Amino acid sequence: MKEKNTYSIGELAELAKVSRRTVRFYVALGLISPPLGRGRGRHYTDQHLQEILTIRRLQARGVSLAELQVRRQQQGRLAWMAEPPPAPLPARMVTRITLDEGVVLEFAHDLTGLTPGEMLELARRCQEVVKNEKGRT
Known about the structure:
single chain, two-stranded antiparallel sheet, Multidrug-efflux Transporter Regulator, Chain: A, Domain 2, alpha+beta, 2 domains, 6 helices, 4 strands
């Protein structure tokens, strides 16, 4: 009698919505654990299913199989399956000055090297240019 939650390669492939060839490929790459047992008694478990589903989810997020292999080698069997950390959100302190309707001047503090007074003077000059250009139309 078959044990509960054990699968043949065909059953595992069907549950994971991949081909048998893909299951074998993942085993060969070392991305999932080898099947348990030998010969016709080889079988897979829920752990194998979870490993495949995790691989597919990570691939959908842009993680390559090569990167997963490196992670598994460096971090061990369980750690590699963790979600990749989210990319850091770029944070930048800016000063935004509205010169005219629909015209905004923005200064990135970490890039300009300007003092607040210099920013205001530059904004004033830019505002003059915008008004002059509007007067021409």
